[in-house]
């Protein structure tokens, strides 16, 4: 009787290890789709946060320049405050002018997670919109708006 107990090996069999690994793989396969969703939400939040920071940096530039906007100053302020160097600032009236009037709509193109976004606002309005995958050929960007801080009229 003692011999039978001593000959029993200590450890797991190959089949037991394969069953445990199979269960782990099945559990991971349940989590994979939800992780992709969380990654997408995180990327969207990063783009929105970057847009908000650019909006704040633009108004910081506006205040520093005594109520005037300059494309060069906006880019400089965004670079200094946010460390973002690859932005493009344009207005609705002219892309070649250095000055932007207070009535102009301002467009700032930036990149986050290898996607292009467009921050769009007017100086006299108190809010902004962020559009994903900016396309200059399309007139209506309403379907691509991922965030807006502008208040919508319900009338």
TrEMBL record:
The chain crosses the membrane at residues 12-32. The keyword Signal does not apply. Keywords: Membrane, Transmembrane, Transmembrane helix. Pfam families: N_methyl. It comes from Clostridium aestuarii. The keyword Metal-binding does not apply. This is Type II secretion system protein.
């Amino acid at each position: 009787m003692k011999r039978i107990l001593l000959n029993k090996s200590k450890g797991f069999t190959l089949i037991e290890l394969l069953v445990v690994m199979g269960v782990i793989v099945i559990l991971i396969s349940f989590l994979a789709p939800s992780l992709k969703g969380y990654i997408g939400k995180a990327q969207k939040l990063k783009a929105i946060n970057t847009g908000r920071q650019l909006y704040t940096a633009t108004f910081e530039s506006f205040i520093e320049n005594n109520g005037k906007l300059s494309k060069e100053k906006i880019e400089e302020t965004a670079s200094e405050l946010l460390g973002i160097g690859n932005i493009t600032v344009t207005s609705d009236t002219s892309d070649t002018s250095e000055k932007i009037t207070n009535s102009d709509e301002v467009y700032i193109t930036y990149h986050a997670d290898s996607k292009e976004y467009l921050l769009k606002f007017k100086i006299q309005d108190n809010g902004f919109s962020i559009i994903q995958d900016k396309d200059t050929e399309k007139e209506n960007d309403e379907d691509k708006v991922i965030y807006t801080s502008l208040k919508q009229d319900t009338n």
